[in-house]
# Entry
Amino acid sequence: MGGAYIIVFSIIIFIAGYKFYGSFIAKRLGVDATRPTPAHTNYDGVDYVPTRPSILIGHHFSSIAGAAPIIGPIVAARYGWTAVLAWIVIGGIFMGAVHDFASLLISVRHQGRSLGMVVEQRIGKTAKNLFLIFVYATLLLVIAVFANAVANVFHKFPQVGTASILFIILAIGMGYSLYRLKINFILLTVAGLIFLGFSVYLGYLFPLVLSVNTWKVLMLLYIVAASVMPVWLLLQPRDYLNSYILYLMLFILVAGIIVVNPQLRLGASPVFSTDKGPLIPLLFVTVACGALSGFHSLVAAGTTSKQLDSEKDAVKVGYGSMLIESLLAVTALITAAVMTSGDYSQAAGDPIGVFSKNSAIILNGIGIPIFVGSTFMALAVAAFALTSLDTATRLGRFAFQELFLDSEKPASEQSFLANNRYFATIITVVLGGGLVFSGTATDIWPIFGAANQLLASLTFLVITVWLVHLKRPKRFAIIPGIFIYSLTMAALAYNIYDFAGSDKYALAVLSLILMILALVLGYEGVGVLRGKHPHLETGTK
# Structure
């Protein structure tokens, strides 16, 4: 079968899903454009800042996408591309987009608080602390996965490293010019895109050749600074400009697939057992972000909810951005499926390399030179991963501080650990850096995938509790939650067995801890739903 048919089919299905199911979910959640959002009511100029929808979509999409929707489908392609495609399309529309949209709106309704604080109000303080520990552990895994990914891309494509550094400087200049000098937004956008192109050109002229470990150190130093900067100075403008790279990458790749119509040579039929384990449940944690991702709820409730200008934008930002990511996952799957089984087996250990190389071959069919295509794709992947990396660090800082936050005390009476964002950031980066240099980078992905999907199931639990409190229909949340919770617990059990059998006891213990936390949180949540706890009696609608 040709890739053009797959991509056109996916686009049509995603558009229909956004129009019909997205509108259906918006009605169930009670979106109200007249409600003031926390970006206005809690404005502080650092984290709470009303933001143009175009900029916020760029930030949100760039942050949630990362490299995961590219890595996951390519790694999972060994299970047969039809199985992967089905999970991306069905999961994206009925689970991932619903999960992202609902978690964004719930945070907005709770004054931009993280889901951990919502858990405290809805389920209890013990559940909140356990949830935040789970979230924090997941974010440390995110930092490790994406820091390794970015360092490897910069090492393999040194021109991308130069362009990315210049891009960061450009973003800071744009943020300062927009918010402090009050320069026209359209003029700044045009100038920013011109200088962005110039940064890429300088990258070609002056590639920065450094070792992988040096890049890792630079990444860790960068995310310390990026996590504590005001969102308007770096996060917003960088992600806004990033979105143009990402949209261009997605557009030309989709166009290339449609025009060239590459034949899919990898096996199509589902493969229920491979050397990496069984299709069920591992497929559902390997693909992760392209279909459903708990990390997205942390972005939605961590940074995006604090910048949402109006609730009417929540459908575009929450539901729509997820479907764009699902489309990206489909394109990544196609770049793997064009390979023969033998070629795939040899290259599957380098999914970013597979994506960059095969995308460039496809784009060469529409006149783009191989070198230009592969470098541009690597730049886009690095842009995805770098955005997720510093967003994850900021979210880790939030989670660390909230672990020590007393919701009954004013800010002036909170402890040092709850109030000091610099200390929280440094601790987070030191712990994440320990994983980065642990030598287990290739083994972290299965744990990250499982933790990510467990977080998604726990988010669905929070959504369900909120809906029960409001006496709203809840099946659209509770069914996906049970589905992914069951499969992910099974995947974690398999990981524990596999790691223990390979003498990777530290990873087996980490997987076991995540499983125990998820079991306790699931028990607490079910207790609330069955009326055994009083937390449904109060709260914000």
